[in-house]
Every structure is written in C-alpha cells, then in structure tokens.
C-alpha cells in the first residue's frame, strides 16, 4: 500500500483555517471534519474569504 503524503497547505487553506478559528468552528472541524459544517457555516467562511481577497486586491 502507498502512504498518503501530507497535503501542502495553500494560501486559501490557511485563510480558511484562520477564519474557521475566528468563528469558533475549529473544534467542530477537528472533531468531525470540514464536511460536518452546515451550509450556513461554510457559506460564512467563503463569504469572509471573498471579502478579504477583494480588500487585498485594492491594497
């Protein structure tokens, strides 16, 4: 059997983790994974990521 290589975290992954932590969702993610988040929780993370990316582009 082949071993799974650890995933290299991208800038987006790091941002997603940071936002999940800020929203108090990291305990849930660590315990049951990203798939356990509700659509509302996932949407909130995605919305904040989009907002931060737009703000970063503006400078």
Report the β-strand fraction as a percent range.
under 5%
Uncertain spans, ≥5 residues at pLDDT below 50? none
Mean pLDDT figure: 93
Number of helical regions: 3
Write down how many β-strands occur, each being a DSSP E stretch of 2 or more residues. Answer: 0
Between the first and last Cα atoms, what is the distance in angstroms? 48 Å
How many whole angstroms does the radius of gyration measure?
Answer: 14 Å
- SSE class: mainly alpha
**Strand count, sense and closure of the main sheet?**
none
Helix content, binned percent: 55-70%
Give helix and strand order, one letter per element, not per position.
HHH
Shape: flat
Describe the model.
By secondary structure, the protein is mostly helical. Helices cover 66% and strands 0% of the residues. It has three helices and no strands. It has helices spanning 11-22, 26-32, 39-58. The longest helix is centred in the last third of the chain and has 20 residues, at 39-58.
């Amino acid at each position: 059997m082949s071993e799974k290589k650890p995933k290299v975290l991208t800038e987006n992954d790091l941002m997603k983790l940071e936002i999940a932590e800020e929203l108090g969702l990291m305990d849930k993610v660590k315990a049951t994974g990203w798939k356990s988040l509700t659509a509302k929780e996932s949407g909130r993370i995605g919305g904040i990521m989009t907002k931060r990316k737009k703000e970063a582009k503006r400078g």
